[in-house]
Task: structure prediction
Amino acid sequence: MLYSSELIKGTLRTIILKLLCDQQRMYGYEITQKVKELTNNRIQLTEGALYPSLHAMESEGLLVTETEYIGKRVRKYYSISKTGKAKATEKVNELAEFMETMRVLLNIDLRTLTVQ
Amino acid sequence: MYVISEDQIDYILADIAAQGVTDEHLQNNILDHVCCLLENSAEPILDFEASYRKHIESFYKNNLKEIEVEANLLINFKHYYLMKKFMLLSGMIGAGILLLGNLFKFMHWPGAAILLLTGITLLALIFIPIMFYLKIKENQSVAEKIFLSVGLILASAFCLSVLFKLLHWPGANLLGNISLFGAILVFSPLYLVYGFKSKDNRTNVLITTILIISAAGMLYSLIAIRISRTVQESSWMVVENNHKSNENFRSLCLNTLSKDSTQDGKEKYQNCLSFLQKSDSLKWHVIYTATGISGNTNYNSLMDVNPNDLIIGKLLPTDNSQVRELIQFEAGLNQIYGSSNQAFDIEWAKQNIFGLRISEIFIRINDIERDALLYALK
Result:
């Protein structure tokens, strides 16, 4: 099952920041593949959402980049900055709290994943 | 693994640029991404171009450019939503205060001016500029930006013209004329041309254009209201009635004086005649300086002139000749009263003539005339 883009939209930055916290450096395609792999194809980041976020976070100083030439084309690697790390922790905690709140609000039993 | 040739890379890069992506970093990111997809494609690639199209089309909803637009929006518009909130807030508060100001003005309560000033300033200088700023940022084409900028300037100018009018500041009508004529002659054609580019909403564009033109037309007719003809005529009626009764009085006095056959009486009669001629020419000179109308002998020709415009020296530059005329007028009086007579002080005329209303000065001159004729009759 694929999750709707509406659900992913609000958590995209959290996903990217957390991934880059755990990995050394990644490029765009690699990020989409990693997310796919970790979620069993359930979350597929779209290019239209991924790159605007990467560019914005770079300009905000959350990410730093380095470029490498792969033959004729340029590959841009993203890694997390110091402020980005702090932001990642903040975002993950916020999401965890939000999930907990939603669990209570919607009365979801996490063990069976059914609405009671 | 499929190997992408350098020519194919050039082809992809050129295509990405042709689709409107201008940022070099984004171009490279997209290029690398699509190359990775092609290289790692599960199916064998027989037709490079078709495979490339299939992959690149999965990047967007309408066009590739939207990725750059979205990126710019996120980068430049960290405060986009904050600005939007601020815009709505300033608009609501502005409109509310404006309405309150109108109520205060209507009820003659104190504080109306400051409320109107605040309300209109909020709308004209904060709400409208932010609204257009956000709109301009959202839209990319130059034509659209020009069209929105024209709208911004005209809307702000109109708000300010209303403010100027309410506060009796100079330039209100000029601003109003510019903004309304601009809306009719510049904004609506631009809107029409721009709107007709897309086939979907031509009817709406046409309706909106009609609304803009008719609203601007109606507002213009409000601004263009001048003093009503009845008021204009009644104002002149006062002058004319004064003039008529003066004429009657003149002929009565001259008739009496002409019956005096003594040398002294004949001299008095001649003096009075020349004095009245001077008085008349002075009145018409005064009219001439205010209206540019010369050499007439009836007041009907002045009916079309707005009494508010009839201010001494308004039209023609004031010079000493008016003062000289008045001195001659005084000389005429002295011929009747004798050179040393101080009974009639016409200093007021020398001091106050500039800027006086014509009707006012006519009535004063006529008063002097009557006093002079009465004195001559004694």
